[in-house]
Structure formats: structure tokens, C-alpha cells
Amino acid sequence: MQKPFSFLFISMFALLIISCKNDAQDVKATAESAVVDTVQKPPVKRAPKKDLTPEDIAVIKSVMSRIMSEPHLKKYASYLVTAEMGTMLSEDKGPFTVFAPSTIALEAFTAEKKKFYATPDNKPKLEEMLKSYIVQGKMDKETLLQSITKSGKAKLKTLAGVTLTATKSGDDIVISDGKGASAKVVKGSIEGSNGVVYVLDGILNVN
Do 33 and 59 sit in the same domain of this protein? Predict the structure, then answer.
């Protein structure tokens, strides 16, 4: 009566051994597969990080970069790009002083004027208008105030040949064009690697 039980026990033991062997073989196969994958798939080589040159850093911190990153000057920045003046204000050493009208100020242009500057054939006129707000040389706020204090006003010759005048009204710096228009400096000077930027609250009669 014990033989069937013994036979059953021996059979179960044999099956257990076979199962263990199969598991061991599976583990071994998995390990071998992992080794093969490791050998066949070498780690991806990443390109070495490029160090920024002094010229790269200058462009990143340029007057053009400052204008483009200033929330109040999005429209002026767009006009500069349209007039293809971005390279001049980002790569040229200058230095430049930019009295840029804010986006709100430029929205005061009539529909006809906006259409005029958006027309490709009128790009030279757009460039002339933009240059009328750009002065050759660096006039940061401290230097500008010193010049105003010394003689009551500071004369500023723009790249378009227009002369702007800076004066003080209370604590404010006011920029006028000699044609009856003036605008107040609401922000600046914003330092760039090749000059400074001011934000004006109005447009001038320079176009």
C-alpha cells in the first residue's frame, strides 16, 4: 500500500527538481541576455558641452537682447526685427543708447501709419524712424542726470541725425524732439553689453 504513495512522492520530487533546473536555466538565460545587451549596446556618448565665448556672452547681454526681453518693448523689438536692425544692436560694439517707446505708446500710431511701416517697400523709412530713438554712445542714467544737472539739459544726436533733448521735470527725465513732442522715461537705464536702454511712455515727432 505504500508503493503508490512512494511513487507519487518520488514523482513530485522529480518534477520539483526539473522545475528548479528550468528556473535556474531561465535566470541564467536572462543574465546572459543582459550581458549580451550590455556588450551590444554601449552607452550613448553625449557631445561635450560647448563653452560660451566672450562674443557669445556679449550677444546674450546686448542691447538688442535687453530690448527683446523687456515686456514693455515687444512692439519696438518687432519693428527692429522687421527693419533688420537686430544684428547691429546685438553684435556691433556701439555703444548705443536707446530711448525706446513702449508698446502702448507705439499703439498710438494711426492705422495708416501702422500699415505704412508694415509694408516691405517702406522698410528704409521704418529704419529711419527707429534710428531716431537711438543715440551713438553710452548715456546711462547717472551720466545723463549729471549732464542735465550741469547745463539744465542734455543734447543727444541720434543715428538718424535728429537731435533729442533730455531735461528734468521733478524726479522724471523727459525726452523731447524740438518739434513739440515729448515723452517721459518710465524705466531705465537698462544695462547691456554694448549700451543702455530706456523705456519711454510716448512717441516723438521723429518720423
Answer: no
133 in Cβ contact with 98 (< 8 Å):
yes
Residues 125 and 180 in one domain: yes
User: Domain range spanning residue 75?
Assistant: 54-200
177 lies in a domain?
Answer: yes
Across 188-199, average pLDDT:
94
Our CA angle for 69, 206, 176, nearest 5°, is 85
User: Hey, what's the cell of 205?
Assistant: 515727432
Count of domains forming the chain:
2
Q: What is the mean pLDDT of the chain?
A: 81
Shared-domain flag, residues 108 and 181: yes
Tell me the pTM: 0.73
Q: What angle do CA 6, 8, 9 make, to 5 degrees?
A: 65
Burial class (CB in 10 A: 0-12, 13-18, 19+), 61: middle
